[in-house]
Design brief:
Strand order of the largest sheet: 2-1-5-3-4
Distance between the termini: 47 Å
Shape: globular
Oligomer: single chain
Radius of gyration: 16 Å
Largest sheet: 5 strands, mixed
Length: 174
C-alpha cells in the first residue's frame, strides 16, 4: 500500500506492506536509525517517537496508522551542530553511557515535559489542584516506560530536571 508520512516536517511517500510497523518504516525504509529496535514488544521505550506531540512506542504502531499525523524522531529535535535544549542537558549531565536508549529517553522526556506544562497528573502527583512539579518522583514515574540497561537513571533525571527548571525560568520571564 502507498502511504504518506510527515516526519520531522517533511512528507515522505512509501510503498509498504500494510503490516509494517512505524519503527520498521523509519529504520528500514527511511534510514532514520535514531529510533532503536530494542524489545519489539513495547516494553523498553528505545523506539519512542512523538506522534502529534504525544510519545508512542513506534514498534506498536503500524506505519499506516500514522498517515496524516505529525511524527517527530530524534533526528527532528536537533543536530550535532544545534542540539535541542534537552539534548544539551543530556550531554551536560552525562545522561547516557552506551547511548542505545538515549534517543527514546530524550523523546519521552520531551513529551513528558509537555505533559507537565499542560498540567497532566501522573500516578505520583501529590496535589491535583496545583501545577505538576518536575520532582525526581514525577520524572522517574513518567519516564518509567523507558529502560536503560546501563543504569544512567540518576543523570537522566538530573538532565530532565535541569531542562524543566530552565523551561520554568523562561516562562517566568515571558
Amino acid at each position: 500500500m502507498q502511504i504518506s508520512l510527515t516526519i520531522n516536517h517533511q512528507t515522505e511517500r512509501l510503498d509498504l506492506d500494510p503490516r509494517t510497523t512505524l519503527l520498521d518504516a523509519l529504520r528500514q525504509h527511511l534510514k532514520l536509525t535514531g529510533c532503536k529496535k530494542g524489545c519489539d514488544h513495547g516494553q523498553c521505550g528505545a523506539c519512542t517517537v512523538l506522534l502529534d506531540g504525544r510519545r508512542v512506542n513506534a514498534c506498536l504502531i503500524l506505519a499506516a496508522m500514522a498517515e496524516g499525523r505529525s511524527i517527530t524522531t530524534i533526528e527532528g529535535l536537533g543536530s550535532p551542530e544545534a542540539l535541542s535544549p534537552l539534548q544539551a542537558q543530556f550531554l551536560h549531565h552525562d545522561a547516557f553511557q552506551c547511548g542505545y536508549c538515549t534517543p527514546g529517553q530524550i523523546l519521552s522526556a520531551t513529551g513528558m515535559l509537555e505533559e507537565l506544562a499542560a498540567g497532566w497528573p501522573s500516578h505520583v502527583t501529590q496535589d491535583l489542584t496545583s501545577p505538576c512539579q518536575a520532582s525526581r518522583a514525577e520524572i522517574s514515574e513518567r519516564l518509567s516506560g523507558n529502560l536503560c540497561r546501563c543504569g544512567a537513571y540518576s543523570n537522566i533525571v538530573a538532565a530532565v530536571q535541569a531542562e524543566a527548571a530552565a523551561d520554568a525560568r523562561s516562562e517566568d520571564k515571558a
